[in-house]
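Hello,

Following up on my earlier ticket. Below are the four sequence lines again, exactly as submitted.
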Amino acid sequence: MQTNKNTAQLLLHCPDRPGILAEVTNFITINKGNILHLSQYVDRVDNIFFMRIEWQLDDFFIPREKIYDYFNTLYAQKYKMSFELHFGDEPPRIAIFVSKMSHCLYDMLARYSAGEWDCEIPFIISNHEDMRQVADRFGIPYYVFPITKENKAEMEEKEMELLREHGITTIILARYMQIISDRMIEAYPNRIINIHHSFLPAFIGAKPYHQAYERGVKIIGATSHYVTKELDAGPIIEQDVVRITHKDTLEDLVMKGKDLEKIVLSRAVKKDIEHKILVYNNKTVIFS
Amino acid sequence: MQTNKNTAQLLLHCPDRPGILAEVTNFITINKGNILHLSQYVDRVDNIFFMRIEWQLDDFFIPREKIYDYFNTLYAQKYKMSFELHFGDEPPRIAIFVSKMSHCLYDMLARYSAGEWDCEIPFIISNHEDMRQVADRFGIPYYVFPITKENKAEMEEKEMELLREHGITTIILARYMQIISDRMIEAYPNRIINIHHSFLPAFIGAKPYHQAYERGVKIIGATSHYVTKELDAGPIIEQDVVRITHKDTLEDLVMKGKDLEKIVLSRAVKKDIEHKILVYNNKTVIFS
Amino acid sequence: MQTNKNTAQLLLHCPDRPGILAEVTNFITINKGNILHLSQYVDRVDNIFFMRIEWQLDDFFIPREKIYDYFNTLYAQKYKMSFELHFGDEPPRIAIFVSKMSHCLYDMLARYSAGEWDCEIPFIISNHEDMRQVADRFGIPYYVFPITKENKAEMEEKEMELLREHGITTIILARYMQIISDRMIEAYPNRIINIHHSFLPAFIGAKPYHQAYERGVKIIGATSHYVTKELDAGPIIEQDVVRITHKDTLEDLVMKGKDLEKIVLSRAVKKDIEHKILVYNNKTVIFS
Amino acid sequence: MQTNKNTAQLLLHCPDRPGILAEVTNFITINKGNILHLSQYVDRVDNIFFMRIEWQLDDFFIPREKIYDYFNTLYAQKYKMSFELHFGDEPPRIAIFVSKMSHCLYDMLARYSAGEWDCEIPFIISNHEDMRQVADRFGIPYYVFPITKENKAEMEEKEMELLREHGITTIILARYMQIISDRMIEAYPNRIINIHHSFLPAFIGAKPYHQAYERGVKIIGATSHYVTKELDAGPIIEQDVVRITHKDTLEDLVMKGKDLEKIVLSRAVKKDIEHKILVYNNKTVIFS
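Thanks for your patience. The regenerated structure is below:
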């Protein structure tokens, strides 16, 4: 565990050109930033340069509130970069959305509670009362928005108000059984993480375990991805699978799948919390 | 390796009723058959009983040419069974179909050549000359049927003649890049094994690695299945996957996929050679 | 989920002889027991017959309190069987032992709490106060026995008293960092399940992640096993692994390992709760 | 597949200091080398900087025969680097050592033959005649050195003569059942790749599948590693595993293991051929 959190994390991508890496590292080094991590990757097909760099701010010349501007002016415009800047002492603020299943929720709260994740979870949102007891156990506020076809727009508006009030940066759909409206997706672009209980793009949509059982597959999977407007088609963050046999009933699939879902979702959330994911072209670049 | 091949293998399925297992084992035991392997499984959803039993024929009272009739009359009709009977000293006769890729072909011929598989491979069929050298290295006849849109029916007719002449029981499509016509599929029901280079039902059809690369999946797979009239939709025998990252190019996917394909295909072929697969309802029951 | 729990489960093994399967199934059928599940397996090397059979007791002729005796007299002695008999409405009573780590504990309590496991967990035992808060959250009594070298025998005596009082049938060591004494192991033969954070038999003993890191392995694992007197050498129930690279620090190994540990332990506990494990010759036969 | 092979590959490691990356990339860029691939990694525990860089030589100012000297003088001494330099048009020259098993040999020759590997395999060495037929099929010379306890030193001397004559750079032990003497290991430091048929460090030494079977593990593995003087203790390059059950006999383990062995060995060889492996402190850093 890193104790000094006075750090900055910069993620960027841009058309590849010689010298980018040297310029960016130079920028940090000459301003007395101590580089802690550096990962870069070049997509040779599309010729895109990707980079993540993390440095200590203790002796950094540039005041933290001006780093974004400086970097933008000096480098981002020159190289046509898209970039994000994060600070180690400003952890993500996460809202968890759930419906009626507890396995992903317990897994996340257990990690949060044990200090595995450097984030804040100010509250949990649900369309049902069922998970209130779990929230209570961990002392986290639980808000119910009983969405129906009729009131969806209105309810989502209230949800978004709550999200804004609490400065939520990230939404986790922990088996939340409601389609998120385009409006909310637009407000949180690549900031909503979903877990889909299949090996996408197989078994898109409802009841993937039923579909898998019907098809007679020998392996089932789970997929965590950022939510985009097209259903189950957003950038994939993490996937994993488990082997099944003809002896496994639909209930066995559901049970085995639950273990996959919670691990796959939590891996994705961890990477996101650590700002190690870059989205480009509906795909993710995941830094180690 | 089993040296005494004077054995019979019986595979059956039927509506589940009490006493089937006892009757079938009794039938063998009282006729002095020595049971070597017995596996049974009941699908509790559809209430179907599945069974595979293998026994030594050395002291078996019923002459081998009459076992089928006896069993059919005494039990199959009573219990509405579907069943197959195989003999250990009558190994499957396999025709391999290839196009231009060698990895599955080499893998299969290496196993065959090393005595891993108890089968005969009388010849290889292709629509191209490319793999002739591989066939030559292993001393296996190689027939080219240069299929075009125009001559497809005629060519397949010749292929089927060759298959019949040599008493072929099983066809392996080892990355054979031609759609098999319905007529041939009907002649070899659940007797044609294909390897598809994706984790079915994801990426059905052409260029699955391209599709996987475009979609940005984190895991790729391969699937072996029996060929049915619907493309890539037959009963799945075996699947496996390998993890990839954003760093993997399309070429990397193809390369990693090749290793999957050959292993997954060979596992399926082995199970088929050993008569350990029962097909029911477009799914496979695979005995261990 | 099975709602009618008026069932019996019989697990047995004995030297293989013809007719055992038929006799046992007969015993149940003629006494009007409705067989729900049947698995059998023959170890052809040592010639041992293994069987698990589960049946409904609703119309069973033999009163449940006499089944053990009847079966013992009629079959077990004749066939030199070892056997266990369990009833579906008498779930296992589990004591969890923990030290300072919460991941396995949370995972187990979340499953228990969600009704995934058909068992009772009357209390948690620890040698430290650290996990009391977790126990409190789930409303489960938490007893601390602060074991030292000096007081170990005395403390374990008290623990065993508590175990006896509550009719504990199964002990789970959920990363409990104390060696269990021979006396307690003798009192709970194959009834204590441990999770070891390595792919046994690699990295036996203390600090397996340190050992794995030092050795430079490319895969780490976790192993759940029944505790026997020889350290980390008991019958293995379940193992799983995860891939690592040179980039993974010791902390990364610990973090990735935690996810393995909890899943591997919970899979083992589930199999044990369902009475699907038979131990023979320091190995496990695991029925599906 | 890369068609222009007029490239250089530089692998290096040294104590980490600011500016190394910039200096090395600068060295190549200002001399008009076109960088194709760059991977770097810093071990933050031991503070070691690792790097692999590949560039095109077409317009490179420094003549290829002088690159080593220049780099050594200008940078390696300054930064206390260990480094290797390879050229894309000077592929590794591999000698394969085998005994009696064909699966790894076939797998490697099939890949070599299909052009998957950019290397030369001038000959195969064995202590038995058994694999001559396989070598013949691929038209590769096959030399037998029938090693006994008495003649070992003398035979190895002849082997090394042959290796030197043919400019062999890399030795692959493809299930070669002889201990390599210290003398030969010293002559080929981290240049001999072995496949061990277990998940090292479990089951070191002879008959690992027997050991695995006896121990009752639920997963078996294979490990490829560079050979050092301590048995099965060299730097691990690649490992993989496959799940087994109590039903798997020793023969099943051997059979499933073979598929692991050949894939794991071939993955290691491929990484070695591409000069993507750096050895440090008895561990490997593997560049992607």
